Amino acid sequence: MLVSRRNQLLLEFSFWKEPEPRPGPNIYEMRTYHLKPGTMIEWGNHWARAVKHRQENNEAVGGFFSQIGDLYVVHHLWAYESLQSREETRNSAWMKEGWYSNVYHTVPLIRSMESRIMIPTTSSPLQ
Predict the structure, then answer these.
(1) What is the CATH classification number for the domain harbouring 107?
(2) Would you say residue 3 lies in a domain?
(3) Within a domain: residue 5?
(4) For labelling alongside 39, which of 97, 107, 113, 124 has CA 20 to 30 A away?
């Protein structure tokens, strides 16, 4: 039984590559950030510089922000071979110059965040 439903219209950040079909198997992490009102441009400016630190292993799938529905919401979609590779990739980001600075400047902009691990269905172009 459907208890509730929420819709959002999302746009992709211009600095993030468009999601493309990929071979698997992969797991996906959807990280959702609820930002403080008025901070979307600042968030985007920091992430435009920082996303390069997370593209070396091809884990960056997409970055989106809300236009209709709950506003000041950002979604990042990441692909990993396993939970172990997720942990290794996230830990290695801290070794890259500039990553700490991005986290330092963006964390104060966040009201709350969520992380979901997702497994693609067999019909999904993202495997």
Answers:
(1) 3.30.70.100
(2) no
(3) no
(4) 97
